[in-house]
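One thing: can you check what follows?
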Amino acid sequence: MVAQLCAGLRLEHRTKRWLGPKPQTGLQENARAARYALLAEEARAFGATAIVTAHTLDDQAETLLIRMAAGSGLAGLAGMAPRSSVNGVVLARPLLGVEKARLIATCKARGLSFVRDPSNNDPRFARIRWRELLPELAQDGLTAERLGQLARRLARAEEALDVLAVRALAALPAGGEAGERWFDFARLCHEPEEIVVRGLALALAAAQDNDEEDDVPLRLARLEDCAQALIVAAREGRALRRTLGGFRLSLSGDGVLTLMREGERRRGVHPATV
């Protein structure tokens, strides 16, 4: 259908296929990753600067519900961004604030044909089960519009908190050498707990200076648990050791936190300057 539409508009068209074995579980997630990889590959081949998708407000609402059920933090609950990056290519979602019903009505009014994906009716997928619940939730006020508004507000809060965390971390006494970073964690603990958690995540990200470390997943729950234990130890003035995201974390009694890649020999903890 897309090929015929493009032919009528005299636009170049190509069909890309996801080849190879398919997973037995997580099919939608893996298919989504494969689809974006193919799109990005084609975009780079053509020198395109962006990929544009037709995600709607309903898709945003479903994403928010899915991530709430999965226990996501603020970043996840901010939902899909109107503009982001996928595989190094800009990903734009210009219809993210438009309800699906309005989009369908517009297509019908303009005589534009569209396809209904049969997988959208398959209850095996969590997104479809949440989609079926949306009409019931809307009856009590939890509409796609309200959920989309919540996602925008959380995205705004997420951006502000990230800025504050960057500033707080940059203001700390810190140093390091190859394979090791240290900073004054005790002073960071003067900030609200959310800033401490984000500061720790930023410090770990800064220490990941090669591809191997970047592949280490960092789950929010583990980050929060580790940060909380370090906060308690720092306030009590005691040493503590933890592992997180491929690093060994060593907190000294004077509140200096050293990050060192797992498997490397410890070279000592640097004292924090006053």
Remarks:
- Strands lie at 50-52, 83-86, 89-92, 174-177, 180-184, 240-244, 247-251, 256-261.
- The mean pLDDT is 90.
- The chain has two domains: 2-155, 171-261.
